Amino acid sequence: MSCCDLAAAGQLDKAGIMASDCEPALNQAEGRNPTLERYLGALREAKNDSEQFAALLLVTKAVKAGDIDAKTRRRIFDAVGFTFPNRLLTTKEAPDGCPDHVLRALGVALLACFCSDPELAAHPQVLNKIPILNTFLTARGDPDDAARRSMIDDTYQCLTAVAGTTRGPRHLIAGGTVSALCQAYLGHGYGFDQALALLVGLLAAAETQCWKEAEPDLLAVLRGLSEDFQKAEDASKFELCQLLPLFLPPTTVPPECLRDLQAGLARILGSKLSSWQRNPALKLAARLAHACGSDWIPAGSSGSKFLALLVNLACVEVRLALEETGTEVKEDVVTACYALMELGIQECTRCEQSLLKEPQKVQLVSIMKEAIGAVIHYLQQVGPEKQKEPFVFASVRILGAWLAEETSSLRKEVCQLLPFLVRYAKTLYEEAEEANDLSQQVATLAISPTTPGPTWPGDALRLLLPGWCHLTVEDGPREILIKEGAPSLLCKYFLQQWELTSPGHDTSVLPDSVEIGLQTCCHIFLNLVVTAPGLIKRDACFTSLMNTLMTSLPALVQQQGRLLLAANVATLGLLMARLLSTSPGKPWGPGPDG
């Protein structure tokens, strides 16, 4: 029995309560622990701080001796309240013979007991203790001190309980907990593994806020994890594969981290692995591709072989998942493979400073063609009930990236899928139009560095525009697109996007993808003007488009940085005006002067 236990026993002995009563004995009739009841009674009747401290110490011991239900926990809170625990957490004077952290440890133990009730975990009197609790995580002390270890465990229990409440993560981040957890983890003292687990939870709940408040500390953790990952020779490297994506910053990843991550992934993916070992590595590689493009892959022979390996593995995984109908698809893994395939498409089409040599490009294009065939096969099976699922959108996205560069291969399969793609794009467009909130869509852009510019959530049309631009040159695909109503849909889409360039909108924050989409639409319309002039003359949507072009062009010319778009619009407008001027009944016919 410690000195503090002896002091507590002495104080309670005066009150007629012996420390030996700590032996738990459950009263079956009342369903209560009589020992705990006796201590709670002593706590309520305590005449001074010493007696209250002694009773609290034994209440805490009784609570830790076994599980308690919510009602008992509430009764303890009603008997104790927050006032005395508050004093315990802030006092610097301990009873004679007791270490100075004993009182704080008791206060944290009581808070941990209270925090197991979600309502109490969100109580202001708990939330305002966050800064104090943070200091316990990084305080120095004897690593073998059982009381200090118990206090650290209770501190993590409190912080974890707060994090589990609705607004808890926000309070923890604002209170400096992220930095404290980073320092606790990097110090590798007692409980550092709990610090990492809580960090993971906070990043998953509020990634942007965490990085905003504690970027230097989180980068330090990333450096440590990356170095551990590069050096790991045991199963821990697979666990790190799952953790590391959460610690990639929204800004630039430090070069030393990229080197370590690439080296670690090269060793993992170059080995013979089971799916549960390989899949986290592919997902980490996809996150790096999303954040850095190909900048994280070194130049030279080793880098080109690594990139070829990545794309090869991704294509194999896609085919295994999608070619067999009825196979359960691990959508998160396949979506990660799509990102790696996009990286492959990007590098295969890059003329200068590509990581790949020509023979490697030829080989990868052939491999990716087979994987795209599997994607087309999957999309052919998609029914109306699945069209709103994110995985379907991801599948359309990778197909759009492929069609933007290659339409000659898989032509038959692509033509068979075109009716679905038009219907799919129309469904998503109409839903976005019903929302009628363009500013909110622009504010919630999802950025992907593997394609030119941001993508509106659900904006499948922008992903398909480059491929459709190529396909409208060819007779067969163009006829299918016209039959399915794609030109009319594109006119509506163009007019919707055009609104964002009007003087009433702040064009300075307009994403480049809007202008790129408008330019690509112009190219499609130019193809139709040349190859299907009858469609332009008979479809009323082109008359509306013509009106918009002619009335808006002067204002567009005045906008800085929009010269290329203005040139596309002017060219399209002139050709359409010339074509429509020959149509009887059209407003663009020759005037009285001929």
**Straight-line distance between termini:** 111 Å
SS field, number of helical segments: 29
Class of secondary structure makeup: mainly alpha
Order of helices and strands: HHHHHHHHHHHHHHHHHHHHHHHHHHHHH
Helix content: 55-70%
Strand percentage, roughly? under 5%
Average pLDDT works out at 82
In terms of quaternary structure, the protein is single chain
- Give start-end ranges of low-pLDDT stretches: 5-30, 435-457, 588-594
Coarse shape: elongated
Number of strands: 0
General description of the model:
InterPro entries: ARM-type_fold (IPR016024), Neurochondrin (IPR008709). It comes from Galeopterus variegatus. This is Neurochondrin. Belongs to the neurochondrin family. 70% of the residues lie in helices and 0% in strands. The longest helix has 40 residues, at 192-231. It is elongated, with a radius of gyration of 33 Å. It contains 29 helices and no strands. It has helices spanning 3-14, 34-45, 49-64, 70-80, 83-90, 102-115, 118-121, 124-127, 130-138, 146-163, 168-174, 177-187, 192-231, 236-243, 255-269, 275-292, 301-322, 331-349, 358-380, 390-403, 411-435, 438-443, 460-471, 475-483, 486-499, 512-531, 533-538, 540-558, 563-580. With 594 residues, it is mainly alpha-helical. The model is unreliable at 5-30, 435-457 and 588-594 (pLDDT under 50).
Describe the SSE topology:
Layout: H1 3-14, H2 34-45, H3 49-64, H4 70-80, H5 83-90, H6 102-115, H7 118-121, H8 124-127, H9 130-138, H10 146-163, H11 168-174, H12 177-187, H13 192-231, H14 236-243, H15 255-269, H16 275-292, H17 301-322, H18 331-349, H19 358-380, H20 390-403, H21 411-435, H22 438-443, H23 460-471, H24 475-483, H25 486-499, H26 512-531, H27 533-538, H28 540-558, H29 563-580
Helix pairs in contact: 1-3, 2-3, 3-6, 5-6, 6-10, 9-10, 9-12, 10-11, 10-13, 11-13, 12-13, 13-14, 13-15, 14-16, 15-16, 16-18, 17-18, 17-19, 18-19, 18-20, 19-20, 19-21, 20-23, 21-24, 23-26, 25-26, 25-28, 26-29, 28-29
